[in-house]
Structures
1.
Amino acid sequence: MGKGFYISKTLGIVGIVVGAGAVATIIALSVVYAQEKSKNVSTEDGQTTTVKPPTTTPTPSNEPWDKYRLPDTLQPETYNVFLWPRLQEDEHGMYIFTGNSSVVFRCVKETDLILIHSNKLNLTTFGEHHAKLSAGDGPAPPSIKKTWLQVETQFLVVQLNGKLTAGKTYELFTEFRGELADDLGGFYRSEYYVGQVKKVVATTQMQPTDARKSFPCFDEPAMKAIFNITLIHDHGTVALSNGMDIETVNTTIDGVEVTQTKFAPTEKMSTYLLAFIVSDFASIDAMEDNVLIRIWARREAIAEGQGQYALNVTGPILKFFEKYYNSTYPLSKSDQIALPDFNAGAMENWGLITYRETALLYDPKMSSNGNKERIATIIAHELAHMWFGNLVTLKWWNDLWLNEGFASYVEYLGADHAEPTWGVKDLIVLGDVHRVFAVDALASSHPLSSREDEINKPAQISELFDAISYSKGAAVLRMLSEFLTERVFAQGLSTYLNEFKFKNTVYTDLWDHLQKAVEATGTSLPHRVHDIMNRWVLQMGFPVVTINTSTGLLSQRHFLLDPESVVDRPSEFNYEWYVPIKWMKTGVEQNQTWLLEKTATVNEMKTTGAEWIVANLNVTGYYRVNYDMGNWERLLTQLSSNHQVIPVINRAQLIDDAFNLARATIVDTTLALRTTKYLSNETEYMPWESALDNLDYFFLMFDRSEVYGPMQDYVRKQVEPLFEHFKNITNNWTKVPSGHTDQYNQVNAIRMACSSGVKSCLDLTTGWYKQWMQNPANNPIHPNLRTTVYCSAIAAGGAAEWDFGLKMFLAASIATEADKLRSALACTKQPWLLNR
Ligand SMILES: *[C@@H]1O[C@H](CO)[C@@H](O)[C@H](O)[C@H]1NC(C)=O
Ligand SMILES: *[C@@H]1O[C@H](CO)[C@@H](O)[C@H](O)[C@H]1NC(C)=O
Ligand SMILES: *[C@@H]1O[C@H](CO)[C@@H](O)[C@H](O)[C@H]1NC(C)=O
Ligand SMILES: *[C@@H]1O[C@H](CO)[C@@H](O)[C@H](O)[C@H]1NC(C)=O
Ligand SMILES: *[C@@H]1O[C@H](CO)[C@@H](O)[C@H](O)[C@H]1NC(C)=O
Ligand SMILES: *[C@@H]1O[C@H](CO)[C@@H](O)[C@H](O)[C@H]1NC(C)=O
Ligand SMILES: *[C@@H]1O[C@H](CO)[C@@H](O)[C@H](O)[C@H]1NC(C)=O
Ligand SMILES: *[C@@H]1O[C@H](CO)[C@@H](O)[C@H](O)[C@H]1NC(C)=O
Ligand SMILES: *[C@@H]1O[C@H](CO)[C@@H](O)[C@H](O)[C@H]1NC(C)=O
Ligand SMILES: *[C@@H]1O[C@H](CO)[C@@H](O)[C@H](O)[C@H]1NC(C)=O
Ligand SMILES: *[C@@H]1O[C@H](CO)[C@@H](O)[C@H](O)[C@H]1NC(C)=O
Ligand SMILES: *[C@@H]1O[C@H](CO)[C@@H](O)[C@H](O)[C@H]1NC(C)=O
Ligand SMILES: [Zn+2]
């Protein structure tokens, strides 16, 4: 039968029972959903579930310079680096930098070959060679036989006529010239305008493998060394690097008058954490104990006070981490700088953290509370790396997940310390756990941990910076900290940092220290930390735990969003996990239990009468939960009688789990939709956000089908009370709600009320926007609401509204404001405007 028939029939049903309300719509939606889904499986999650073909490996070569990893023969100790970036174009219209570098290295194993990374640098030749080699503490070195650049593996190869002596040091000198390109990698340039005047900043992004693009170096994280940096720059510009500037002199080089700034030698550190910046930026500063904290940005931004919020929170967050790690901040200063062009959100260069402007600058008149939260959490993330990552560094990139997952977890702790009223720690569930569940539930996911020998090329390293490393890493570390307790977790962390400071580790070193803390504190665990964590780290995905409250039987299985997908990645643990289960029975928290087998019976989970169970309290565990229908029904009853008995995070969980179980065809779509019924009584952000995330998927599925109308009616009915609630608590939209997440939910209320056609909402947003159009110098829309109000007003309006938005976008001098307008321009319903 054709699909038209089904849809008409469904709509017919909806038509008949329309007065009966929500349930009818829910049932109709479920029916159409099933049809749409069977029609086109590939639209199921918008992601392909096909497995990537294995990457072809080039023909193996036995020459050391054809391998991507450095041999274990040499170890750098100190570098002396001079760099001179030119902030004006040369006669060929190119921006360049010049420099020289000498590295003192120790020969660990006798060798007649020096391999040092160098990429896209033009090296000066001395005689016929690209380098000069001299003695360190030992004998005169053998002479150089031949040097060349091995482009594919990014090495400068220096072949010698004799052997270097093990145990002795030598010094290698190079002189070079590179392009200061606008490619956001290595030593690069960032441009911005002050009025009509173009300004150029020379800055760096070394992670993961671009330090070699600014000077020849042993560019692997375990090749830690001390760096003496000197920057040469124009009078009137300021030079920054990882260390404090210790000497600034004016001098003339090659007939050019310049300033030369020398920096204190760094701590022993990895190349990927280096940073060099020349700009004419301004700064504000503060002292926190003996640490100098400075916030740098464009002069205009500093003059407008946009660095003040970052300065306010940095000191408290640094103090928090010193206490959390039980380890003092290892440097004398902490510079943080906002760059107009920056690829990542931020980069944790030791002592000189770089940010996108939107991640560091806050303007009380223009920034929303979401912008503010992003600033607090990103600062906390980067400061957390000062110890975890910078002081103690993973040996190789295959363990990137531990570095990034860790910082992505504790960023919430640091931000919570700076802003204790926000409840920001709860938001990890939406921002990381639910987000990565969507990716990790695909058969094409991958484990957190990769083998060292699987990750060699720069491209393979870059691939690791994904949601699995960051968000799943954060989720499983949070789970670990929760089942150990934060006290035990922090104790293991502290001894780990203390033992390995200025050194490198593999992830099992952390497990060793956490296990020691478990033993020292007499914490009871069903298995060693290693054995529990291996299952989460070495196999991809996560389980769905099913609890049958009529029998007390628990079972687990690998959760796959597409039930038909084929998992062809083997797992030595058969896709079974050691699952910590915190749970409650009818509102009363119970003792934590563990699911250690595929199935187990927990008698306490057998319920009688109206008792219900919610497992995975606060979603501290990295898994989904399903129940027998009886328990689901009792949960739904509880939600519609007194939802507050179920913790707010778990209300969000019930919705998200139900929708995803439905997509996996484990439960009926009807059940998922029914979890949204109680929302007309809900005012909290997390359940609403969770529901809207999932309903957005329905909107995408149905926005061209006949059930779209009834669905809009249903959503309107659910959201109207929320809209009225916010109208009431904001005194007819004249106040900002006091709670941080209430401010977020106010945005949801307006977004959904307007998009589902609540008239008073459209009047409100278009009214505000009109007022602004009449008086562009005075925007009446609160920064929190701008994204949604701009979008709603432009969607409801025509060319005049769109043109005004474009005009304001082009005139915006604040990055966050420009972002909001740009995205709103895409909200118009007019194809010809969209086309523009
Ligand atoms: C490296 O460059 C700096 C600045 O141009 C210069 O002063 C220094 O002499 C150079 N070092 C060597 C060994 O040539
Ligand atoms: C490096 O050398 C190449 C080849 O001579 C040249 O095209 C390029 O412009 C040089 N780069 C710089 C930064 O001078
Ligand atoms: C680095 O600088 C320090 C202090 O200026 C100096 O004592 C040390 O010798 C320098 N190291 C090298 C390799 O030049
Ligand atoms: C270097 O020269 C500039 C411009 O002449 C001057 O403003 C600055 O104070 C001088 N710096 C030093 C360290 O002499
Ligand atoms: C920074 O802190 C000061 C002093 O507590 C306060 O007056 C100011 O409002 C804060 N600024 C921001 C942007 O939070
Ligand atoms: C903090 O570290 C010191 C040694 O560095 C140790 O003596 C002390 O017990 C640690 N404190 C805690 C709470 O772990
Ligand atoms: C939790 O465990 C403790 C100690 O074993 C026990 O005394 C207590 O009754 C248990 N609580 C619940 C709710 O089962
Ligand atoms: C769950 O989270 C809430 C809010 O953060 C907190 O008050 C509560 O103590 C947490 N409950 C458990 C069992 O961790
Ligand atoms: C729960 O157990 C009962 C009794 O064995 C069984 O009939 C029912 O199908 C089970 N439900 C689930 C969801 O496993
Ligand atoms: C809202 O709450 C009231 C009382 O708390 C309850 O009677 C009603 O059924 C709830 N509505 C929904 C849709 O759950
Ligand atoms: C509006 O707020 C007041 C108190 O601020 C409260 O008493 C009243 O019930 C609220 N009305 C609605 C419709 O939420
Ligand atoms: C709320 O504000 C609107 C627009 O300013 C106004 O028309 C309306 O009368 C106000 N309602 C109340 C209850 O104050
Ligand atoms: Zn990070």
2.
Amino acid sequence: MTDLLTTVPTLSGVSVTMLRDTILGHLRTSLGKDPGHASVYDWRMAVSHTLRDLIMEPWFAATRRTYGEDRKRVYYLSMEFLIGRMLEDAAINLGLHGMIEEALAGVGPEFRTLIEDEPDAALGNGGLGRLAACFLDSMSTLGCPGYGYGIRYEHGIFRQRFEGGRQVETPEDWLIRRDPWVFERPEAVATVGFRGHVETRGARAVWHPGETVIAEAHDMPVVGWQGRWANTLRLWAARPTTLFDLARFNAGDHTAASEPEALARTLSRVLYPNDGTQAGKELRLKQEYFLTAASIADILRRFRGQHSDLRKLPAHVAIQMNDTHPAIAGPELIRVMVDEEQIPFDEACEVAVQVLGYTNHTLLPEALERWSTWTMGSVLPRHMQIIERIDDWHRRMNPKRPASVSILAHDEVQMGTLAFVTAHRVNGVSALHTDLMRKTVFHDLNALHPDRIVNQTNGITPRRWLALANPPLAKLVTDVVGDGWQADLDKLKGLEPHVTDAGFLGQFAAAKRENKARLADWIAATGGAKVNPDALFDVQVKRIHEYKRQLLNILEAIALWHQIREDPSSAIVPRVKIFGGKSAPGYATAKLIIRLINDVATKVNADPVTRDWLQIVYPANYNVSMAERLVPAADLSEQISTAGTEASGTGNMKFSLNGALTIGTLDGANVEIREHVGAENFFLFGLTAGEVVARRARLGHEKAAIGESQRLRDVLMMLAEGVFSPGEEGRYHALTDMLWHHDHYLVTADFEAYYQAQRAVDRAYTDPADWHRMAALNTARMGFFSSDRTIKGYMSDIWSVPPAI
Ligand SMILES: *Cc1c(COP(=O)(O)O)cnc(C)c1O
């Protein structure tokens, strides 16, 4: 055994020569290529395999220790993992970035070329999926034994293009070439059933599914900082139980004969590009059950390898539900305990509750999942019965419970309530969000279970979002505070004494300038405008959604453009406004906002009067790798959602960490970011969450706000006159009509305050030294927002799992 292990390459034995030999070796034996004829793809695969080899040792060691010490494991169930590229991340975590560059020098392409050849694994829509990816990174860094469980979608989030300014979606095909990070596990399979009927045998129920698919595991190692621990991201792909039905085929029913194959292919084919609103499609429910059932079968198989009594599950297993998407986990766990192990129902409920945790991500009512009892009953007939019994159990345990907390209401299964009732901890993702959860969506449940709701403010991994994305700043940080901040972000505090030092500020400014120049080159190279790297880079990148208020931002751009045209001497700071983000394909208003941004960009960028002062760019297809380019180059971070709507945000954290100042509302984690970085280093504007509620209740608040702002009236007039849509005056009628009459997200109410806050930004930017001092203070004070801190919170308050390292 020991002899075998010594043949595994280990980090301690790494040298440039060894890396070069291994890369060349892989080129020959794994790729079958002579270095002289190898393509960029071949080199990327060879380097990926080389790094992968080095992850095996910590990966196996982590598994051996978890088994050997019979440690409790955490299972993070998420329909989305927005992991992005893996090669550079592995190099950074293993501390081998520089050595790989050296190993390639003279023999192969530049490392950067290989890094950018990798497709961006975009198995998620936005923040929720990216959070899951940051959490995996932190769990491995902290030595929290566990697995991420997700779906291996054939197509991740769609690729976005613009045609005539409009969003066009095309399929993303990240799997078209071999993925060096995935290990297929044909032996790790689970059968998942749907539909069918439930047979009653005395007191027992037996579910006979009418359809089945096989879930096949695809494992990706997730290595933590310095390769001290590695967990697994296990993604399930659907396979047909039988390739096709020969009897039906021979009977002439050729289409029906392929049904099992069609069902399986459909199940793991596409990610729902559905950010926020609920499509109510059966396929989505099937996907959710597919993930949940396969994962729970896998978890129980592993548990049964070492234990027998499922009642002991809570001592060994913690399952976290990332939003309600896997909330069928409660009924599924209970089904297994009751139907397969004959555990009494009430006891099964208590065990499930101790095992499960639920993270809520939204207060928007339209985004809370609900399934009609008809759909649930036909897709998952046994689970529908169990859900009714859970509701009954909860009523019996809480005889005084109000009708508002029942899981079944209006012939629908309320998935938020189901998740709440079947979890021992329910967490919000920022202090404000958790507070609002207690006061609004879960008010009555909170009264019944006052200890259940806890807060875990989101975080981001400093490995990807500083070490990887921002080499110039990372180097400066290391020069000043030493190494180690990558896994102990509070060390950034050590920058603070230097923010009054002109030498340090010069270096800080130079790092930002370098990132901006790099971004400007990339924008030009990818067909965008030629932007001025000395302008203020003002960035809003995130999903396009009314509540995130990209509309407010573009209206302000129009107002600014108009102002400079009227009085060129009023312009004091050149500004480049950068937008990025996708809209859900069926979200008409968001798509119209995208078109407006592009139309305004076309008009403004062509204006010789304002060109030197205002430019607008909107690179298509925002994803993790684009975020890695944009975030380090930003001077100003736009976090301008209507107060009370953004649960936390994590984009806001990436920007502050990288030395951008925020213009933002008191929403989500902005509140805590502002507390940490200091109110004087943050441009606050807008109504508070409480004021938003009061304002909305005021009839005609839109007209009042518009009446008070000549500037806003001018902007709306320009839109109505077709200034940005020549020949089609009505193009933006739907938007102006909304702003005048049903402005739910209070763009009109906050417009003037936002415009004035932007002018305060302009004034601040005219004093570069002071600006950089404030920016550096943002970086120095962002230690709290490491996802390592967040995961420590989950480990102690929700999972009861001690770190293994
Ligand atoms: C961080 C991130 C998000 C989340 O951004 P928010 O501003 O918090 O909505 C979305 N998409 C990508 C690609 C990200 O990296």
